[in-house]
User: What shape does this take?
Amino acid sequence: MYSNPLLHLNDQEGTYPPSWYAATAVGIPKTPPLQGDHRCDVAVIGGGFTGLSAALHLAERGYSVSLLDAHRIGWGASGRNGGQVGTGQRVAQDELEQKVDSRLAHDAWQIAQDAKGLVTELITRHQIPCDYRSGSINANHRRRYDRYSQQFVELLNERYDYHEIRYVPPDEMQTLVGCKDYSGGTLDMGAGHLHPLNYALGIARAALTAGASLFERSEVTRVDLGDPVRLHTTQGCLTARYVLYACNGYIGSLKKSIGQYVMPINNYIIATEPLDDGTVRRLIANGACVSDSRFVVNYFRCSADNRMLFGGGESYGYRFPGDIKSFVRRYMVNIYPNLKEAKIEYGWGGTLAITMSRLPYFQRHSANVFSASGYSGSGVALATGAGAMLAEAIDGVATRFDVMNRLPTPRFPGGSALRSPLLALA
Assistant: This one.
């Protein structure tokens, strides 16, 4: 019987972490653990964006779907992340063009655009209260990156007919983000940000309404592959025609052929006390979210109730830092010294999954076993789209899934012991 340590070491069993997202969550569905024997068409392992989106889209297509999550819906990275809904794949489009042929690069771009559009479509169609707001700033921490930003905007304008992004010169950037730490960068009004846990909960409610079954506190401890597939938990067994692995950074050794391609990384966020309106306007003048050009990215935005939500720092291994608030606060104060005296009311960590190439890992492991993971920090849109593509593939239309499957995602060589040092070279 297998149990992933990442699911148990850092948070209280069966509850959400002590985040600002959990404190402001609305409409949390009450779903039971799996008990006894059940049957369905499709079993989904993981209650994050990928699994929830897959469950919703499969149920809408008439499949009987059962989703299993070890803790609560949106408990993992989907309910803990920075909430940024980005444009394109995690790899910048010019870099992607160097990795793959032009047709595949354009197809991958369109899939990412469709995924971003699906996020706002689901929010509108299901009236999900997740504070979506347009605008995403990428800020350069080195002046030498400014020319690249200009060229990147030109590439998206000219080759991809994307005009919602523009170059921001240094003087405007310093006004937009309220500090002199950055040079130029870009502003993308086709991207945005949201409350990720409330977004996940909204998809869960939609999936339940469509007829999907969701089971919480139901960690999958063994999967017997075959036709049908049998999934075992501590209290029950689920038999299904198909199984979807939607575990992302929490896959562990549940399916080692996925774990060879994705590596878990822990990331951390803090939330300040509510700030006055004037301070908020001086921090981020247009209400956009911000990420910077550092290798270990700083990402931040202001919440609907005027808090600074700041993400910074990362770690490997199973355990989070003992004092997450202090761990992240130094990154925030480095950017915003004027927040030195602001009270930090929440601090939390989460585990995402990266790949060697930073491109998602989509795989058809056999005729009835599928997976999607490794969004490398761009999972809000891409994971939502992945769920839809998994549903399409099971329903016999795998065109978009196969595009993602063709993106290069080499395995991490040497096993888990070598993955951390290899990351620095990737």
User: Anything to note?
Assistant: The longest strand covers residues 344-354.
